[in-house]
Amino acid sequence: MRDVNDSSGLGLRERKRAQTAEAIHIAAAELVLENGLDETTIDAISARADVSNRTFFNYFPSKEDAVLGIDEGAVAAELDKVHDTQEDPLAAVFDLIYAIFEASGGKQRKELSRAVIRKHPQLMTRQMARVADLEDRLSEIIAGWLRDDERFADDTDAERLEQARLILGICLSTVRISMRRWAGHDHSGSGAGSSDTPDPRKIYERAIATLRTVMEKLS
């Protein structure tokens, strides 16, 4: 979700949309922390965010998506930014997945999102499922990167697409592990700005390094 405090490059309509999406996301997350996931209703979320149920569904298809802050428009915008060529496809895949999570989770509400997922870890499954829903689109993007990589020059388009799906699957598994660590990190007693609170990006980078090490040992 876009940072609503950063209005650079946004028109009035886009700013209002970002603010409304953020308000719904915050309302949903706070209500879940207060009352629990099952007890939180779309009616209650809409009331706290001061929007109608119809407006709610204009932004989020489900209660769970609102709690996580999954903004379909922001995710689509991230995919539209993808470049045709990548020097390091593996790192690029992680960057792409991370960008989707950033678009979905709300940069300004990292602590709130972490608290919700820690209380209801089943929401992590929904977060990962959102990326899995994009498997075909992501695989096509990755296959395009492989097409421009000389290491895959002799492969057919079908082979590169199959390889792209394999790369995506491996990266998603690695991300799933890193997200569990991110959500389960014990920072009780630490403030929101504490240096003990893990940066999700650093956890991603550590996961990438671990994957590379394992691949080198297996090669």
TrEMBL record:
Q: Give a yes or no for keyword DNA-binding in this entry.
A: yes
Residue intervals annotated as DNA-binding region are: 41-60
State the source organism's domain of life.
Bacteria
Domain HTH tetR-type, chain residue ranges per copy: 18-78
Q: Which GO terms describe its molecular function?
A: DNA-binding transcription factor activity; transcription cis-regulatory region binding
Gene3D superfamilies given in the database record: Homeodomain-like, Tetracycline Repressor, domain 2
> Which keywords annotate this record?
DNA-binding, Transcription, Transcription regulation
Q: What is this protein called in UniProt? A: TetR/AcrR family transcriptional regulator
- Species name: Amnibacterium flavum
